Amino acid sequence: MKWRLTGRYLLSIVLVVVLIIFINLILGIALLTAQIAFDVPIFQNREISPEQFTRNFQQEMITLDQNVAISETGQKKLAKKNAWIQILDENGKEVYSFGAPVNRKQKYIPAEIVQMYKYKEVDEKTVVYVGEKEQNDRRYSYLIGIENRNIERQFISYNIQDIIRVFKIGMVILLIDILIALLIGYLFSKRLTQPLHTLIDGIKKLANHEFNHHTESRGLYKNVFYNLNHLADQLKLSEKERKKLDLMKEEWIANISHDIKTPLSSIQGYAEMIKDPEYDFSPEEVREYAGIIEAKSLYIKEVMEDLNLSTRLKNKELTLNKKEVNIVALLRKIVIDLLNDPKYANRDIQFHVNEENIMAEVDEILFRRAINNLILNAIVHNNDQVKVEVSIEMKEQTHILIKDDGKGIKEKELERIFDRYYRGTNTGAAHKGSGLGMAIAHDIIKAHDGQITIQSEIGCGTSIEIQI
User: Fold this and answer.
1) pLDDT at 29
2) Which pLDDT score, from 0 to 100, does residue 423 have?
3) Which of 58, 138, 177, 423 has the most crowded Cβ, counting Cβ within 10 A?
4) Do residues 402 and 392 make contact, with C-beta atoms less than 8 angstroms apart?
């Protein structure tokens, strides 16, 4: 795996270099073709070379009264080129000149012409070119000297064997360069890909739930390794929370199974007694047993409704039927209904309000369920002498406060009081059920875009505030 990754990286570098060379080659050929086809000066200026200028200049030579000269156009071309001309006859004697140096020779032998052509015999800034023209059965030679420091002419002699030898040496050097480039590319690729191997190993460890693995954050991939370590820490915390939630869920399932099993046993027992022909129950006894069966059935029904409602709230599948409601009247009715319940008739539940009309858009059934759950939680988790106060007032938002002077809740339990499946240590035989009451109340308030907060102190009581 490591060699494969390094090889791919090295191959990608080589392919990029080859691709760039190939593109440059195609571009060069295209530009050269465009220059030839459209006469566009891409690689060289439009101005012709000095050799071409010298060859074409014979067209500017004219004959006047059996004497040779140059045209006026030719004179302008020479002036523009910063050049001079000497025209020689067959014997090398000057028959015409234009702009030539004062100290020039008047007659040249062939060796001198060759010498002047091959080397700078005039001065260091003048290059001399030689041409000839046949005119009126006579052959003329002409020397054109161009004064331009930028023009250089070199004559090179070479041996083909030396060129082949240089080519062979160049190929060897090229091969050595390629090997060196591959070696450097390999070392460079390995240095860059080595952290990737560590990164891949780290990801594999995370995939295998090995969250204690940490890699030192340094080098080019410092931020990557830092975030990988941070991810490992977060996954470790998530795994810890998941295990804790699974344990809570298992305990909750065991508790609720026991809570449901108990009323089911009662229902089954009384039903079997009524069914058994050996027993002769009076009508009053039958009604009593039927009442017990009904009460146990209603208890199981409430538990199942809690499960269904909690699931729908969690999955956001519940559509709220909101309408304008007087929250004061709604809370007062909840308190009165609880006090009218024989189980809570002796409890101290007080209701405080400063104004009688506080309107809000709520789902009346669900909101009633949430407030009822919170008040019942304050009643059943405390002793019979607990005082529960329910108050409401209008500020920037509607504030509802449910406060008791009971046992209070421990801090570690307070953090999970609204979690599903959580049952506090205060829960006893007097309060059995789904264990979802507080979670349902919390989710209903959140579904109304409200806020719910809880504060508690051991021995002093608990207060729950709702803003909606």
Assistant:
1) 80
2) 55
3) 423
4) no
Distance, in Å, from the CA atom of 335 to the CA atom of 359, rounded to the nearest integer, reads 18
Q: How far apart, in whole angstroms, are the C-alpha atoms of residue 183 and residue 168? A: 23
Helix H or strand E segment including 63: strand 61-64
Contacts of 70 (CB under 8 A, 6+ apart): 60, 61, 62, 78, 85, 87, 96, 98
Q: Is 209 helix (H, G, I), strand (E, B) or coil?
A: coil
**CA angle (283 as vertex; 278, 288 as ends), nearest 5:** 95
Q: Mean pLDDT across the chain, nearest whole number?
A: 81
Sheet order of strands, 83-88 included: 94-98, 83-88, 138-147, 126-135
Which residues contact residue 244 at a Cβ distance below 8 angstroms, ignoring those fewer than 6 apart?
none
Give which of 312, 448, 460 is closest to 371, Cα–Cα. Answer: 448
Query: Which residues fall within 8 angstroms of residue 416, CB to CB, at 6 or more apart?
Result: 422
SS3 143: strand
At 41, is the pLDDT very low, low, confident or very high (cuts 50, 70, 90)? low
Cβ count near 453 (within 10 Å) = 9
- Dihedral (CA of 70, 75, 81, 86) sign: positive
- Residue 35, amino acid: Q
Task: Assess whether pLDDT exceeds 80 at residue 396.
Answer: yes
Alpha helix positions (H), 39-138: 50-56, 72-81, 110-118
Give, as one character, the DSSP assignment of residue 94. Answer: E
Sign of CA dihedral 134, 136, 141, 142: negative
Q: How confident is the model at residue 325 (pLDDT cuts 50, 70, 90)?
A: very high
pLDDT of residue 330: 93
How far is residue 464 from each of residues 117, 145, 402, 433, 447, measured CA to CA in Å?
110, 108, 5, 21, 17
Where does 252-330 show beta strands of DSSP type E? 323-326
Per-residue pLDDT tens over the stretch 93-142:
988 899 888 888 888 888 888 887 777 667 778 888 898 888 877 888 89
Radius of gyration of the chain from its Cα atoms, rounded to whole angstroms: 53
Q: Is 275 left (phi over 0), alpha (psi -120 to 50) or beta?
A: alpha
